[in-house]
Batch of 2 targets.
Target 1
Amino acid sequence: MVDVSGDLYDRYLKRLTDFFLSTVLIILFLPVSVVLAILIKFDNPGPIFADTPERVGQNGRLFKMFKFRSMIVNAHMILRQDPKFRGLYAKYKRNSYKLKDDPRVTKLGKFMRKHSLDEIPQLFNVLIGDMSLIGPRAYYPDELDNQQKKYPKTRILVKKVLSIKPGITGHWQVSGRSEVNFDKRIAMDADYVQKRSLWYDVRILLVTPWAMITGKGAV
């Protein structure tokens, strides 16, 4: 059961911290965001922001996650519906919904994804309250459903993970990122939910820039 202090932290101090820091970071990353937006338009035809479906947020509520587009247009549906990608989609599901060599990723997208630059717009999700700076990963509905079928023992952990807001960064993101399979990832996120505190978040926040710079485990 989640410590009551964690709930109080989420409701007051964490929300205040999220609002303040996301505002500051949006301003600091504005020049980078403008440059990336221009480069995306030159690199590959299509919108600046990713055209992906909604994600599962706190208590199962769906929300639109903002991300810079790092793939070809309509990449999400193409993988799932185009017969040419049937084998790749099967591999995608086997590998906990990650692909190391994804043909849908653009040239610029590979760089952005390695260094998590495509996630900068999620700061606006934090600002409006859909997400937190620190928290579990936000999953697609079909991904969450299929992975729980693959790993039935994770259902109770998923319920715990969905009790709080997802984060831009978190325990698993700075401890292996995409190299960690779903069962271990959910266990790490559930452990974060149980232990979350101001000091725990500060430690994760301090490690995050190094994870972005090195790009370790990113795809």
Note: Residues 4-214 form one domain.
Target 2
Amino acid sequence: MAVAENRIVDVAESSGKTTPKTARKDDVKILVVDDTEGGHDLLEVLLFQIGYKNLVKAYAADDALEQLSRQHEAGEPIGLILLDILMPVVDGVQTCLMIRADERFNEVPILMVTANTDVKKLKDAFEAGAMDYLEKPISKTELDARIGSALRLKKELDRRKELLAQLQKANKKLELLSSKDSLTEIANRRTFNWFLEKEWRRSIRKNHPVALIMIDIDFFKLYNDTYGHQKGDSCLKEVAAIISKAAKRPGDLVARYGGEEFVIILAETDLETAKSIAENIREEIERTSMFHEKSSISNCVTLSLGVAAMTAARGATPDKLVEAADSALYAAKREGRNRVCVFTE
């Protein structure tokens, strides 16, 4: 690299213009990548004059990557890179590609330093990940302005990235809230409908059965009228917690269907297994012994449960399974409550 290419041109004084200063320049660690000592010396003088004194040198692509890694591991990451575009063996464009290939450094601003303003070369540099370029001979004013612009842009991009992360986090929270029943904190009816449709399609593909248990708290209106809505809410939450413990597999879903009704979707589960799970739930509720003096079948809270299972067929809808489980639940109520009934064709 010829020294003539690197002579410093300072137009700040001659133009009478003042260059906006970037705040806390000493905090910005700049990596200067140039294959000549003369190139480093001239840039170092220029950078010192405009206030950037925290500099790191590299003379080739592998050296640049080593410096980036070393500073990163030391907790003092590089904040900006000045990269000479014309270097032997591995040029600036390839070096830029290598830097961008490492996810630790793919957002560090890179400014190409070049005497070659060939459009194709600059296009290659921008496509490789350069943010801007500086043309030799270098103007101190332009260097200050372009570094300041690059750092401000990086700060704005970081701010937007943080805002996007916060928005995504908020959206996930909203999505979670919209998928859950606010009282019992289990899935709501909307999530149940979506999950059942998904499992129904999977049943068609895999030719595996899917089971559904519909659950109703016996004489819950009387419970609410007797003990008040606050006590009724506690009862709903207790029942939801017990049901949730019985359906713990990733392919299972417990949801509040509405009012005092709950549903359980059991993926790849046959009728006998689903019936056994339903019976365990019924017995566990009885063992809990939540007092219910107005129940005509027991002195504690009890459940009626309807169970259905089927392998989905093409052309059929999951409504068929819901209707079957609902029919079994109705039978359980009709036959005296506090029992499990299964649907049979």
Note: The first strand starts at residue 8 and ends at 9.
